Amino acid sequence: MSWLDSVPAWCWWLIALVVVAGGQEIRVGAGKSDARTARAELSDYRLQVAERDRRTAAQARSEEQRRQAVADEEGESARQQLELAQGRADAAESAAGGLRGEIDRLRAGHRATCDTIAAQQRQARTSAVVVLGGLLEESDRMAGSCAAALERSRIAGLACESIADRVKSGR
User: Fold this and answer.
1) Is 125 inside any structural domain?
2) pTM of the entire structure?
């Protein structure tokens, strides 16, 4: 008989149980170590992603600010040009007002002259000076308003083109 036969069967089961439990304990310990490593790697990855997102957001903000600065600069330039055009339109309107006053003076003078002519002659024909004066006055008024509208439209279009060009080129 050998010493192995002297060990009861339940001891063998106990030894097997201790060996299996010890193996499981080693396996669980290794799993915990792997889990800690994975958590640390996940934490590092989250930090990298957060930093990348922060940089991307900062770049997007910077680009938006650059584009807004371009738009603001061009808007200010267009506003100044519109003010200048409005000043020129006001000066032209003032000059046109002087011309209209002169036309009214000529009409009044013509009427005074025409009043001396017989009533039937005055009714028979319309004075060319009065008709042409009215046409000139109306066409001058329309030309001034059209010129002002076209100048505003031109300035606004040039400002839009400039903004688009500068945003595309990145200046």
Assistant:
1) yes
2) 0.51
